[in-house]
Amino acid sequence: MSQSTPKLRPERSEVLMSRIREACLLMGIRQKDLADSLQLKPSQMNLYFQGKVEMRTDRLVPLLAILGIDIERQIEEKIKELGGESFSPLGNENKVLARIGRLDEYKRQSLLRIIHILGSK
What we know:
By secondary structure, the protein is mainly α. It has helices at 10-27, 31-37, 42-49, 57-66, 71-81, 92-102, 105-119. The mean pLDDT is 80.
């Protein structure tokens, strides 16, 4: 029998996205800039924020990172705290810089606006 991945209950997913939306507002991050940074259409970002569509992990993790929440690091710390073996991939900074370099000018500027906002907090 195959195991299916448990999904958040709809109300939990909506609460999570509501809190993320609140964090963005408090940080002054526009939904459009966030969508551009995640290479999404603003309408798709809006569906996520309204709780109409559940955000996949491959989009949620970078979104949390933009907000300064490094969920991967937090998981690593928890594993280490529980006595597990730590795993830290090398070269993440280079991967990020390479990915930024491949963005078109508009998306790169949106990302830089978010970095500027985060740097001024």
